[in-house]
Amino acid sequence: MLVIGITGTLGAGKGTLVDFLVKEEGFRHFSVRQFLIEEIERQGLPVNRDSMTNVANDLREKHHPAYIIEKLYEKAIRHGGRAIIESIRTPGEVAFLRKQGNFYLLAVDADPKIRFQRIQLRASETDRIDFETFMANEAREMNTTDPNKQNLSQCIRLADFKLDNNESIDKLQQQLKTVLKLILIDKT
Q1: pTM of the model
Q2: Mind listing the domains of the chain with CATH numbers?
């Protein structure tokens, strides 16, 4: 079993990496976002970034910092093979996955203005915001000392590989192909 985790800033291209890994490399996708949307809908809350953040933090506080990722990892194990877990947000999640073995963490980032333009085009439930709100949301998720809350900056620091997505999708995919070669060499 091989598990790749994806972390990164808001709108940086996590989904683009996932799409490539699923379509071109046969990975199975396990999404924190989808897990949270299902929980938010179960609780009858509006599907937005505030609900996602609050529900995720509540689940981690109620159970433990790696709870969400642990649930997705259990699904991945049942399916076997290559898995990608998207939206690693806490150092506890990284630590849990590292203990399982055969895990690599990729981080993706891009200029904030480029990322904001991308989320405007994506227009998901959580993307209908202005630039100031976008930056405030990211600031809220970047640093904390609470192990149950998002700490993107620490997750990015913990990444095995960092990808820059300031250019085209092709450039990002080329970086990902290089990383995959390194991972597969490391596995042999």
Answers
A1: 0.91
A2: 2-187 (3.40.50.300)
